[in-house]
Amino acid sequence: MSENRDGYISPLSTRYASAEMQFVFSNHFKFRTWRRLWIALARAEQTLGLPITDAQIAEMEAHIDDIPYELAEAREKVVRHDVMSHVYAYSQQCPLAAPIIHLGATSCYVGDNTDLIILKEASEILLKKFARVLRNLAAFAERYKAQPCLAYTHLQPAQLTTIGKRATLWMNELAMDMENLETQLGRLRLLGSKGTTGTQASFLELFEGDEEKIRRMERLIAEQMGFGGVVPVSGQTYSRKIDYFFLSALSGFAQSASKFSNDLRLLQSFEEMEEPFESTQIGSSAMPYKRNPMRAERITSLARFVMTDALNPAFTAGTQWFERTLDDSANKRISVSEAFLAVDAIANLYMNISAGLVVYDKVIARRVMEKLPFMATENILMESVKRGGDRQQLHEILRVHSHAAARRVKTEGGENDLLERIAADDRIPLTREEIDAQVDPRRYIGRCVSQVEEFLAEVIRPILEKYPAAQNAELNV
Q1: For residues 404 and 223, what is the distance between their CA atoms, to the nearest angstrom?
Q2: pLDDT at residue number 98
Q3: How far apart are CA 302 and CA 145, in angstroms?
Q4: Would you tell me how many other CB atoms lie within 10 Å of the CB of residue 1?
Q5: Whether this model's pTM surpasses 0.90
Q6: What pLDDT, on a 0 to 100 scale, did the predictor assign at position 278?
């Protein structure tokens, strides 16, 4: 197929989203699902006594996938109605079933129910992929659970943490996002077949006033489509708040991924960690030495789009008039699909990066030891007090030495000689060996190792057990 060089093509299709996710939002998936819904409706109506034959249903089933798109498109130019165009195309293929296709239904029966099915399918893809990210990060956290590194508050060096403990912070937010999306999926119901204004008046006519048959019909349709039930009440459409709930969940994934990618970009600037960099990859057209965090930057960029896009369904939900209005259509077609496609791209990038994180141990150790002497002064103070020293005098001595060492580093460009200054001061009742013992980084990581182990066992392992196929999730970027 030749490339369209003269018309707009979404980069979500050509650069970012996976083929798997793109298929869920494809026309073929949509129109094939319309046909599945028409068959489900016919089966339910037949079960409940309407004069629909097995031969008619078999004819419809024989043509689920072979959709005559050119015929439907030509018809739509005449009637200006997408659903009726596809009813017409289906009827041309199924002359026996033509009289009962779409019987009693309105356009939203296929349109809205398909959208809900798409929400379900797309969400399941994302959950599988983010479970893969958690699997990658769990292995990373286990490997580096005891390796000290600088922690930061206000982007200033603070007490130490470990590389593995920091990874659990990224994982914990993803676990929260997965739980949120799973909750939305657990609450998701089909629209069912509610009719033009949600009253099911046409079905009351079809079933001669038998309301229980209408209730059973909807249950049968939901079962055939893999849902636990239908929404209890609606106008013509399902509540657009459902789109908002799902895009809010996607915004959560974007927020978490953006936090991870920004952390990694900073760590790469510090030369402590790095995203994967291929042997032939070019970092800059001007500077041959550059190794830019391209993947992490792309996550940040896509995440920003998703977080702002989540506002779209909020406005849509708030401006639906009475039983329905059509100002949702154009916005919904774009905002919902592109949010899922963008988060899919984020998931692919996150999987790729988390599977190949590079750690520069010696740089991390050097940076720790540049700052650790300052952090150790509290321990040196306490140990000196235990040896009989005056706490206030010792505090002043250590304060003066600390500022002098910091001045040497900042204004003279020298190395941190704080430990040498302390060891040479006879007022400090500790030997050099005892002072050095106070600057073992492992003394300053608190419960990091235990926290990592507990978190992996109690939070992450149960998630991964629910998604055994996550190790096979698509990894292309």
Answers
A1: 75
A2: 97
A3: 30
A4: 3
A5: yes
A6: 61
Tokens (6 digits) for 428: 């400090």
Please give the structure tokens belonging to residue 336: 């919902």
Instruction: Just list the catalytic residues.
Output: 154, 284
Measure CA 365 to chain center. 33
How many beta carbons lie within 10 A of that of residue 318, not counting itself? 10
For residue 140, count other CB atoms closer than 10 A to its CB. Answer: 21
The CA distance from 350 to 261, in Å, is 8
Output the pLDDT for position 66: 95
**pLDDT at site 283:** 54
CA distance 349 to 295: 6
Q: What is the CA radius of gyration of the chain?
A: 31
d(CA 48, CA 405): 87
Tokens for 190, please give them. Answer: 């089909």
Looking at residue 277, what is its pLDDT? Answer: 72
Catalogue the E-assigned strands of 207-320.
Answer: 273-274
Q: What is the DSSP letter of 352?
A: H
Angle between helices 69-79 and 82-93 (to 10 degrees): 130
Q: Which residues of the chain are modeled with pLDDT < 70? A: 1-3, 278-290, 470-477
Q: Look up residue 380 and give its amino acid.
A: I
Containing 162, the helix (H) or strand (E) segment is: strand 156-162
Q: Provide long-range contacts, Cβ within 8 A and 24+ apart, for 455-462.
A: 455/141, 455/168, 455/171, 455/172, 456/138, 456/141, 456/142, 456/168, 459/171, 459/172, 459/175, 460/134, 460/138, 460/171, 460/175
